[in-house]
Design brief:
SBP_2_dom, single chain, Sugar ABC transporter substrate-binding protein, 48% helix, alpha/beta, signal, Rossmann fold, Peripla_BP_I, 328 residues, 12 strands
């Protein structure tokens, strides 16, 4: 675990550098050509962010806000597009590349589907940063750095919490087939949980189906005492299914929405893993500006971690205030 602590320090240092540009009235690192990563200064730079989801969805709109806030600070242009299907995301990458951006930001939930498009990005010498998923393949695909949560480590932390709550048999719910990050979350949870772990495939776009599938599973095997959902909407549908089944299992979640926060307040959800996705939008734009101006890179070849942080009954009210502002 020492290496992860080291890169957490790298992430903190990078954030400090970014914030220092804001706090000094735009006095930031200057390159030989005289450009500056200056707060609020309009500059002729355009960046494209292409994600594996809806930019206006409850998770990704926070990433988008982070990118837009960084764009406003550094006076650059940012466009955000996305599609959950790997083939469609690859087409969006090619479409963004055709507009000759100064840099790109890409989430890597399905790296195999994106490899050809990302090869085109790299071959045209367009610097890019990966976010959210794919930390283990990011450098191999040509990214400058990766910003996000290492999903295996996050899963391990979630598994440890459920085990500490007395769990012996865990149901881990996967809502997108082929999403490597979700598989890694379940794998990490299994590694740290210490008891039996089973995976259950559901469809993110069918909440009623999730509810009925979870209900059926828990009625069929009442020995499950722990459940891990990997998405807020899935967590809410899972909770409904658990209640229908009369299950008293402990439920953990990943990520944030108002329903999950309210369920944590009421005690129906034990915790949710917060990967602080605002930083996954903000930091890559800041890093690309600094790379353009001063050839800076961060992480030393390792990911810059934004999580896992945990939201529990102890801190949920404070975090809820930040969620209402669109930054958590």
């Amino acid at each position: 675990m020492k290496s992860w602590k080291s890169l957490a320090v790298a992430g903190v240092a990078a954030i400090a550098l970014t914030l220092s540009a804001c706090g000094t009235g735009g006095q930031a690192t200057q390159n030989a050509g005289g450009n500056q990563a200056a707060a609020g200064a309009k500059r002729n730079l355009s960046f494209a962010m292409v994600i594996h989801g809806d930019p206006d969805g409850s998770f990704w709109n926070v990433v988008k806000k982070g990118a837009e806030d960084a764009a406003a600070q550094y006076g650059v242009n940012v466009t955000v597009t996305g599609n959950v299907e790997g083939a469609q995301q690859a087409q969006l990458i090619e479409a963004a590349l055709a507009k000759s951006p100064d840099g790109m930001v890409v989430s890597l939930a399905n790296p195999d589907a994106l490899s050809s498009a990302l090869h085109d990005v790299t071959s045209k010498n367009v610097p890019w940063v990966s976010i959210n998923s794919g930390a283990d393949v990011s450098a191999k695909l040509g990214a400058l750095e990766h910003v996000g949560q290492t999903e295996t480590v996050a899963g391990q932390a979630a598994g440890q919490r459920l085990a500490a709550a007395g769990g012996k048999k865990l149901l881990c719910i996967i809502h997108e087939a082929g999403n490597i990050g979700l598989e890694q979350r379940c794998q990490g949870a299994a590694q740290a949980f210490g008891g039996q772990v089973e995976k259950l495939q559901v469809d993110l776009n069918n909440p009623q189906g999730i509810e009925s599938t979870v209900k059926s599973k828990l009625l069929g095997d009442k020995s499950f005492d722990s459940v891990l959902a990997l998405n807020p909407a899935v967590a809410s549908a899972t909770l409904a299914g658990m209640k229908d089944a009369g299950s008293t299992a402990k439920l953990g979640s990943f990520d944030i929405d108002s329903n999950v926060l309210n369920s944590i307040k009421s005690g129906d959800i034990l915790f949710t893993v917060d990967q602080q996705q605002y930083l996954q939008g903000y930091l890559p734009i800041a890093f690309l500006v600094l790379h353009h101006d001063n050839l800076n890179t961060v992480g030393g070849g390792l990911p810059v971690l934004t999580g896992p942080a945990f939201i529990t009954k102890d801190n949920v009210s404070t975090v809820a205030d930040l969620v209402s502002k669109g930054t958590r």
